[in-house]
Structure formats: C-alpha cells, structure tokens
Amino acid sequence: MGNNDKNENKMKAYADINYLSPDKCEFYRTDGGLLGLRLGGEDLGRVALLRMFPLRKPEKFISVRRENRERSDSRVEYGVIEDLAAFTGEQRALIDEELERRYFVPEITAVTNVKEEYGHTYWTVETTAGGRSFTVFDMNSNLLNLGGGRVMIVDVDGNRYIFPDVNKIGEKALRLIEIWI
What we know:
It contains 4 helices and 12 strands. It is of the alpha+beta class. The N and C termini lie far apart (about 45 Å).
C-alpha cells in the first residue's frame, strides 16, 4: 500500500463523509437540461459536480453539491463519489458530461460585443468552441489575471473562458476589463 492510499484511508477515517454510490443515488437530466439528483428517494433537483483533486485524481472524490437556498454565498454538499468507476452506463455518461462541461475552458479568439449594466457584464464572443454569449457578475471576483497576458473569466454559471492574450481582444473589451487586470 503506497503513501497516497494510506493518506486516503486516514482521510476516510477522520471525516464524516456521505459516500454516494449507484445504489444510493440516481442522476438525471432536468427539464432544463441540467444535472439533477435523486438521493434516497428524494428529488434534490439541480446539482453541481466538483473534482476535489482535479489534477492528481480526476476520477476520484467528486463532490456533489447544490447552491444553499438559504444563503446564496454557500453550497450544500450532499456527498462524495469516491470513484467514478462505480458508475456505469447512462449514469456514468451523465456524470462525465457534466464534468466535461464544468472543466471545459475554451479560448476566446474574438470579442463581438461586451456591455456592462447594473453590475453585470454581458459578453458575446467567438471561442475555440464556436460562438458564445455569457454573463459575468462582479468582474472584480470573476476575472483572474494568470500572467503573461492570459486572463480567465468565470461566468454566472461557473463556466470558465481564457483570453490567451488579453492585448488582442480589441480596444472596447480591453478598456472594460483593464481596471481588473
């Protein structure tokens, strides 16, 4: 048993974690096309999946969460998928699709339109994945300078986009974001 396996076992022993398995839960698509969860017969509605160790263990320890309905600045964790290998077929496909969506980061190649209104910034862009429109709330918190001219922007749904070279996005867009970079 390697050090990583020993550390994982220690973490399990000390943490009170609700591990989710295919016999406890059922993932599904909501009417709006989002990922939903039924847990122990209760329909929890829309959930988000977050990798706890996205670089070292992308297939293990996936947190299943939802926005806290009582506090918009926090999330409620329903449990953790210990290993994606436990899920197969349609359930695995739904999980993989959601993780791919969450961790997909297209590069912005051109800014078609950008406007700011009431604390929200509305973007229409061309990306390496085609045309996209998205909204960003609080640019101060959702625009990250990665250095070397690279800038990441996070929209209201948690989707991330990369400007590979912010100096090439056009004067109007650059003027709008330059106070944050």
